[in-house]
Design a protein that fits this description.
The protein is an alpha/beta fold. The protein contains 14 helices and 16 strands. The strands form 4 sheets. The protein has a 6-stranded parallel sheet. A 5-stranded parallel sheet has the order 3-1-6-7-8, with helices on both faces. Helix 8 crosses helix 9.
Length: 446
């Protein structure tokens, strides 16, 4: 007999791309919604099309560093317009037959929530929704996430979802669920109080190799290449005690030792946020490892902050440098000067961080930036004694750099988000070249 309480199925879709890897990538937004729905009495289940621990898969060899690892990879045809790119295109994640069986095995859902990530990954979203329709016809499907927010009209016309929502979904989800299921529940939590919200439902995963943390939302900067201020415009912070309680929960109940900061502005206003947090972590005696794949702002790093970071357990640290061309970077952002970068690196090294622990992101393939400028940035970072890490630029609609990206691209970026794929270097005059990529990687590693 079916319960009167609606069953909500959460689905993390496949990735279709030239390359993908689990570098601390979890659908935090979707699992936050799952936790919010559970807190309001709904039954929630979850299928992860990127599940590296699926029981049908042969046990792999996970990266011994912190639980990361490769996704299952299946070669598929390239999307129209990208046939000439000399790289293999693939579906990353579980096999379609496994997904179909998972859909048949979960409690019959009354509503399905699908998330989305990179805008150019939308073919994986569309394939996911097509198979849901095949196995669970008639069940409403709601699409949200980054692609749905930044390319809303495209998602409406191509995804196959019944409804596409933009922006943070926490303040919309109960109304949406009520509309599609007839089960109306009033919001019982203050969404502006991050300390009052339930922890994301990472327990719905088969395995929890690491846990993403969010200690704050929003970012005070509006960098020309970044959509953070569009996706999370509200700046909120958690109390340090709340963050420590969450870390202790996952460590005690699920034996998790690696925690990943998903903040866009973890170190901004450090004396009033990061430093009190790190000092309380140190005082608590927690023995964990912290990672910052989203990068941290460099300007705030001084001797005191660097020391607190290494004492609290920072294992891998990524700096948001983006370019070493400080004379012309004002058109991109105003985050850091040359002196501030060099000072921060000295402070980190003096605190005890090793070269392999600290990396500086450098944006490759920016419109109007020469290969010579990128190479000079790599040399600068290496000269400072830390690791340059190439981050390939993907043009993002509605950002300040979008118009310049459109004008400089050899593709029609406005026609299809597929052409914003950073793997094809869309804003460079010359097509993607293995020779160029190999030369850059050699410069980084030599």
């Amino acid at each position: 007999m079916k319960s009167d309480i609606p069953n909500i199925l959460l689905i993390n879709p496949w990735i279709h791309d030239f390359a993908a890897y689990d570098f601390w990538a979890k659908p935090m937004g979707l699992l936050k919604l799952g936790a919010l729905l559970r807190a309001h009495g709904f039954a929630v289940s979850y299928i992860d099309c990127l599940d590296r621990f699926h029981p049908c898969d042969a046990p792999g060899s996970p990266d011994p560093r912190y639980g990361r690892g490769p996704y299952l990879k299946t070669k598929i045809p390239k999307p129209p317009g990208l046939e000439d790119v000399p790289r293999n295109y693939a579906r990353y994640g579980i096999k379609p037959s496994w997904f179909k069986e998972d859909l048949r095995s979960v409690p019959p859902p009354d509503l399905i929530l699908v998330t989305s990530h990179m805008t150019y990954w939308y073919p994986g979203v569309s394939e996911t929704i097509r198979i849901i329709r095949e196995i669970l016809p008639g069940v409403p499907i709601i699409l949200g996430g980054i692609y749905a927010s930044l390319c809303h009209d495209h998602a409406v016309s191509t995804s196959g979802a019944d409804e596409v929502i933009s922006g943070p979904a926490e303040n919309q989800i109960l109304d949406i669920v009520g509309t599609f299921t007839g089960h109306h529940v009033a919001l019982q939590l203050n969404l502006n109080d991050l300390d009052a919200l339930p922890y994301p439902a990472y327990d719905l995963q088969r395995n929890i190799p690491y846990v993403p943390l969010l200690t704050s939302t929003g970012c005070p900067f509006s960098c020309a290449y970044c959509a953070s201020h569009l996706l999370n415009p509200k700046q909120l912070r958690r109390h340090p005690a709340s963050v420590i309680e969450e870390i202790q929960f996952w460590q005690t109940n699920h034996d998790v030792n690696d925690f990943v900061f998903y903040d866009d502005a973890l170190l901004v206003d450090a004396p009033n946020h990061a430093i009190p947090l790190f000092e309380e972590i140190i005082a608590s005696g927690l023995k964990v490892r912290f990672h910052t794949p989203n990068a941290v702002h460099i300007r705030e790093i001084d001797d005191r902050l660097a020391q607190r970071m290494i004492e609290s357990g920072f294992e891998s640290l990524r700096l948001g440098l983006e370019t070493g061309d400080f004379d012309s970077r004002s058109i991109m952002d105003s985050k850091v000067t040359a002196d501030e970068f060099k000072r921060a690196v000295i402070c980190l090294k003096d605190a005890g961080f090793q070269k392999e622990q600290v990396g500086a992101y450098l944006l490759a393939g920016l419109p109007g930036h020469s290969m010579g400028s990128l190479k000079a940035s790599i040399v600068l970072v290496k000269a400072c004694g830390i690791t340059p890490i190439l981050a390939y630029y993907s043009p993002i609609p509605r950002t300040a750099m979008w118009d310049e990206a459109v004008a400089s691209s050899r593709y029609d970026l406005e026609a299809d988000p597929i052409f914003t794929n950073n793997a094809i270097w869309p804003c460079q005059t010359d097509p993607f070249s293995w020779e160029t990529l190999t030369a850059l990687k050699a410069l980084v590693s030599e």
